[in-house]
Every structure is written in structure tokens, then in C-alpha cells.
Write a structure and sequence with these properties.
The structure is a single chain. With 152 residues, the protein is of the alpha/beta class. Helices cover 27% and strands 24% of the residues. The protein has a 5-stranded mixed sheet. The model has no long low-confidence stretch (mean pLDDT 96).
Length: 152
């Protein structure tokens, strides 16, 4: 399933490993959102992707953008992974896959989401989507995301 570019992004509200609840609506009118779905904490590819995005946090902030990671792992796993890998972006627990399903990236047969990046503008509209063909692929690096944000 592919969401239509320019349409409102599906709303969500999930708990973060940083002890807060985060909603897409929190950023409306304030910040662009890079919503990153990834399969599993502590997996090899994810342990490259999210730390890379987190290491560019200042660049994203300069572009009026927040990066948010989402997967089915628990808040406890998110906290341990963030601490072990120095991840400073919020990691949200979508334990039943409901949000990943709304974005069309939940792989129900294996109980995880595929790797995907959605860029949502300050008005809450979907402006870019990049869905990998397999969960083990990681082809959209931070520079590519920042280039897409610059087009907004």
C-alpha cells in the first residue's frame, strides 16, 4: 500500500522511550517530521540507520525537522538500545503494529514493519515516502533525507 503524497499523514500517538507520549499533532505548524519505521532494535542494519540519523540531529534541527523512530519493540528495549548506541531521537513503541499498518509498512506474517521513511511537512501532509523492498535494505541515508526536506 502506498499513501498519496500531499494527503494528510495518518495520525498517531505512541509512548516514547524518553518517557513521554508523542503525537503527530504535537508538531503541526511547528516542525517537519521524519517518521522512520525500522524492523527491530539491536538488529545489524537498524543499528547503523538510527544512530546515523541521530548523529545528524543538529542538521535536522537546523531544517526545522524532528526524526522519530517507530517499531514494535517495547519501551524497555528502546531504552537499552538507545543507551547502547547513543541514539538521541525518540523511539516509539508500536507493539501491535497499528501505526505501521496505517502507513502500509507492517509485515503481518512476520510481526514487524519493513524499513521505511516518511517525510511529513509542518502542516501534517505527507511529502515524501521511501519504502525499502526488503527489511534488510538501508538505502536512504541522512543526506538524502535532508535533500528531500530542502525541497519543502
Amino acid at each position: 500500500m502506498s499513501l498519496e503524497l500531499g494527503s494528510p499523514a495518518p495520525a498517531f500517538s505512541l509512548k516514547s522511550h524518553q518517557d513521554s507520549e508523542i503525537s503527530l499533532a504535537d508538531y503541526k505548524g511547528k516542525k517537519n517530521v521524519v517518521l522512520v519505521f525500522y524492523p527491530l532494535d539491536f538488529s545489524p542494519v537498524c543499528s547503523n540507520q538510527l544512530p546515523e540519523y541521530s548523529s545528524r540531529k543538529a542538521d535536522f534541527e537546523a531544517a526545522d525537522t524532528v526524526v522519530i523512530g517507530v517499531n514494535r519493540d517495547s519501551l524497555y528495549a528502546h531504552k537499552a538500545w538507545a543507551e547502547a548506541f547513543g541514539i538521541e531521537v525518540p523511539l516509539l513503541a508500536d507493539m501491535n503494529g497499528a501505526v505501521a499498518t496505517e502507513y502500509g509498512v507492517y509485515l503481518k506474517d512476520v510481526g514487524i514493519s519493513t524499513r521505511a521513511v516518511f517525510i511529513i511537512d509542518k502542516e501534517g501532509n505527507l511529502r515524501h515516502q521511501h519504502v525499502e523492498t526488503a527489511p534488510g535494505e538501508f538505502t536512504l541515508h541522512a543526506d538524502g533525507i535532508l535533500e528531500e526536506i530542502a525541497k519543502l
